[in-house]
Amino acid sequence: MTSLYLLLWIAGGVLLQIAVYLSIGFWRHWQSYQALRNVAQEFDISLGTDVAPEELQRAAAAWAGYRSFHVERKVLEDTTKQVCSFYLVPADGKPLPPFLPGQFLTFSLDTPTPTGGTQSVIRCYSLSDSPQSDHYRISVKRAPAPVGSTFPAGVSSNYFHDHVTVGSRLQVRAPAGHFHIDPSDAPAVLIGGGIGITPMLSMLNWCLTAQPGREVWLFYGVRNRAELVMQTHLNDLAARHPNFHLHLCMSDPQAGDLGNHPSGPTHYHHSRVDVALLRRLLPLKPYHYYICGPTPMLQSLVPALEEWGVPDGHIHFEAFGPASIPRKKSASATRAVPPLNDKGDAVLVTFAKSVKQVTWEPGMGSLLDFAEGHGIVVNSGCRAGGCGSCQTSIRTGEVAYTQAPDFDPEPGSCLLCVCTPKTDVTLEA
Q: Which of 216, 223, 387, 197 is nearest to 293 (CA)?
């Protein structure tokens, strides 16, 4: 074989590989296009030549502002009757857009006050089921007043339990949030602490329906068996799906919580969910970890996973409200939490509508706390960058986010609850 023939064979092989690659890419784009056409037909969206697929996806994924829903069902989910699920149906009867498993809904609630009036409260609750076209589901845990404390009981959770009944109308914003499961087939480890199980249920139900072959582990941490939510449902899933591994972890089990259970695939542990347990049970694979729970759980588990060698991009978490989770100085962590300000010095914050200028120094907290501390009234809800209630326009200057918000603020504005001034700044408030 001459050099010319050898060169032609090599060139032919290269061209064949390019053709295969382009064919695969075309097929994937064709599948995406067909899926978008189905969405367009379902939601009666015209597919003109000037509508980009990305715009179609955005149009089908959400609605603007608040939408009216009524409660179709109300179901208690644990033996202590502290967790209740609410099945929400749109009042207009139109199909619901899909959401990403792990996302949340934002509610505007008119809750009663001790004086007999009402107050507007905005709260976010995770969706606790896989996407459905006719209803959404959230599961709310009642928050009692802390024992020996002057703090009151949770306003919104007790309102849901005591005042929201079948037929009640609720004002709801579209699903949102950056905490959701990767739709790839990568093996997943779901970790839920307490009521942090709710987004895990959404992820789990979706995975076992849409990706029945995907390897999924669920580590569910509670104090004892009485706190378990939807245990029968979880046991049934574990029995029907051999690729789903269910581990129930109890830090303070009561008599009979760990033993005398029917033989089955569910595993019980007298333990918190920690890296020692994960290292003992998980095979050596490139798992993605999804974690939701109280702040102390995340503060111990996330750094421990990093120390174990889990890549930063494989650790996804959501805390109950604002939380400071120590992270390694990775590139992504650095992007998510920029410096507080350019020099670490005091900066001047001007509140334009309130006609106030106040000096902010490092350690004074978020701009929302800072504003409230100086008598400036700002709308707020979740105080964790999720609901967007405290969105405020920035006239001049820059701010820095202490954590990546779930709500995407409009250009030229910021979420006061999760940011601090980076330079002298003038705000609309």
A: 197
pLDDT, mean of residues 59-68? 76
Query: Which tens digits make up the pLDDT trace of 209-261?
Result: 999 999 999 999 999 999 999 999 999 999 999 999 999 999 999 988 886 55
Least Cα distance to 90 among 37, 121, 134 occurs for 134
Could you tell me the two tokens for 171?
A: 């004002």
The separation between CA 75 and the C-alpha centre of its own chain, rounded to angstroms, equals 22
Homologous superfamily (CATH) of 347-427 is: Beta-grasp domain (3.10.20.30)
Neighbour-count burial of 22, counting CB atoms closer than 10 A to its CB (0-12 exposed, 13-18 middle, 19+ buried): exposed
Burial 66-78, CB ≥16 within 10 A → b, else e: ebebebeebeebb
The residue among 111, 144, 109 whose CA lies nearest residue 125 is 109
What fold is seen in the domain 188-336? Rossmann fold (3.40.50)
pTM of the model: 0.76
Both structure tokens of 10: 């090599």
Q: What is the percent of the chain with per-residue pLDDT over 70, rounded to a whole number?
A: 79
CB atoms within 10 A of CB 226: 14
Provide CATH code, domain 66-176: 2.40.30.10
DSSP per-residue letters across 351-370: ETTTTEEEEE-TTS--HHHH
Measured in Å, how far apart are the chain's first and last C-alpha atoms? 79
Q: Which is more confidently placed, 184 or 343?
A: 184
Q: Do 123 and 109 meet the contact criterion of CB atoms below 8 Å apart?
A: yes
> And the tokens for 98?
């899909």
Do 224 and 250 contact (CB within 8 A), yes or no?
yes
